[in-house]
């Protein structure tokens, strides 16, 4: 019987994100990444419960675990390891689609005009109410599998509105924020509320994006979500991160923090997810590139950049060779 579930060795970089048990990064902290890097290789050991047991240089891990048996061994030579992505806001369960609305929007129709024509959210609600639960479950499983292939190992479905109420009641996180005021930002910073921004929503609706740069500079902890739904049909967090960097003026480091530890914190899961630290769940991505930034840089190529998706120490997706 194997002593451990998984050994990943020879990685060029292990992007831990944080390495001090920090549960959320705020303001300037979001631009600081904890990275273990060595040209001679770095390793991760995962225990049989699916948690991270050890992180270190290859030479250290080889010596420490010289007699250990592993269920799986992955040679990550020349590659990088990052935490599995956390999607802080989705609506991943529905029936039907609204592809017919896309042409209307491109032609200049507002959301209210689409709604008045019988489209919009009520179109989806009507289809969901009429669909059998078995159909909804089948659709959700298909969506979840696609999210997993794109690197998302933890996601959540929610909806919520009312910024002032959210800050007043001490909400863990508030989403959307396309029209957040300076007063709203100050209230969220003071209350420690995480701002979950959704770049695809502003993009698809041609809205002014949330003032993400201003929010971070004010000292807020910002997370990312895809808002995956029939209106904003994007479930790939690498695309979400790219849009956030280009359209909302955040750095690559900030985008990764927002899509890992901070998104986990927005779900109250950062004690167990969102970073690569001993004791945390081994939700990991192996990036087939010499630097981790390629997962954001190579827009639309995440299916080629992600070599392995690991959930709880088990390989759940592997790039076709």
List keywords for this structure.
321 residues; alpha/beta; Urease, subunit C, domain 1; TIM Barrel; 2 domains; 8-stranded mixed sheet; 14 helices; 25% strand; globular
Tell me about this structure.
By secondary structure, the chain is of the alpha/beta class. The chain folds into two domains: 4-83 and 275-318, Roll (Urease, subunit C, domain 1), CATH 2.30.40; 87-266, Alpha-Beta Barrel (TIM Barrel), CATH 3.20.20. It is 34% helix and 25% strand. It is built from 14 helices and 13 strands. It has helices at residues 58-64, 99-106, 111-116, 121-130, 133-149, 163-168, 182-191, 199-205, 212-217, 237-248, 252-258, 261-266, 294-297, 302-305, and strands at residues 4-17, 34-46, 52-57, 70-75, 80-83, 85-90, 152-157, 173-175, 194-197, 222-224, 284-287, 306-311, 314-318. Strands 1, 2, 3, 4, 5, 11, 12 and 13 form an eight-stranded mixed sheet that branches. The chain has a three-stranded parallel sheet with strand order 8-9-10. Strand 8, helix 7 and strand 9 form a beta-alpha-beta unit. Helix 10 (237-248) crosses helix 11 (252-258). The longest helix is centred in the middle third of the chain and has 17 residues, at 133-149. The protein is globular and about 70 Å long. Keywords: Cytoplasm, Histidine metabolism, Hydrolase, Iron, Metal-binding, Zinc. This is imidazolonepropionase. Pathway: Amino-acid degradation. One of its GO terms (molecular function) is metal ion binding. Its EC number is 3.5.2.7.
């Amino acid at each position: 019987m194997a002593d451990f579930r998984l050994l990943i060795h020879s990685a060029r970089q292990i992007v831990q994100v944080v390495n001090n048990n920090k549960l959320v990064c705020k303001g300037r902290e979001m631009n600081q990444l904890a990275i273990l890097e060595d040209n001679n290789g770095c390793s991760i050991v995962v225990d049989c419960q699916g948690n991270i047991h050890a992180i270190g240089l290859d030479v250290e891990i080889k010596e420490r675990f010289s007699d250990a048996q592993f269920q799986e061994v992955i040679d990550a030579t020349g590659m990088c390891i990052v935490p599995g992505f956390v999607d802080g806001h989705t609506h991943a369960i529905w029936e039907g689609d609204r592809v017919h609305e896309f042409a209307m929007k491109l032609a200049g129709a507002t959301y209210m005009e689409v709604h008045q024509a019988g489209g919009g959210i009520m179109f989806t609600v009507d289809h969901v109410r009429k669909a059998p639960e078995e159909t909804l479950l089948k659709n959700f499983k298909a969506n979840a599998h696609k999210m997993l292939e794109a690197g998302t190992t933890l996601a959540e479905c929610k909806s919520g509105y009312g910024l002032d109420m959210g800050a007043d009641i001490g909400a863990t996180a508030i989403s959307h924020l396309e029209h957040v005021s300076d007063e709203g930002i100050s209230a969220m910073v003071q209350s420690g509320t995480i701002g979950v921004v959704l770049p695809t929503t502003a993009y698809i609706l041609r809205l002014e994006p949330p003032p993400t740069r201003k929010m971070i500079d004010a000292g807020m902890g910002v997370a990312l979500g895809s808002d995956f739904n029939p209106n904003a049909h994007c479930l790939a967090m690498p695309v979400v991160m790219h849009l956030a960097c280009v359209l909302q003026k955040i750095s690559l480091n900030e985008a990764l923090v927002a899509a890992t530890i901070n998104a986990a914190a927005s779900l109250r899961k950062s004690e167990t997810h969102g970073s690569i630290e001993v004791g945390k769940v081994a939700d990991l991505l192996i990036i087939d590139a010499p630097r981790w930034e390629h997962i954001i840089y190579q827009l639309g190529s995440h299916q080629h950049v992600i070599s392995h998706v690991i959930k709880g120490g088990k390989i759940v997706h592997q790039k076709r060779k």
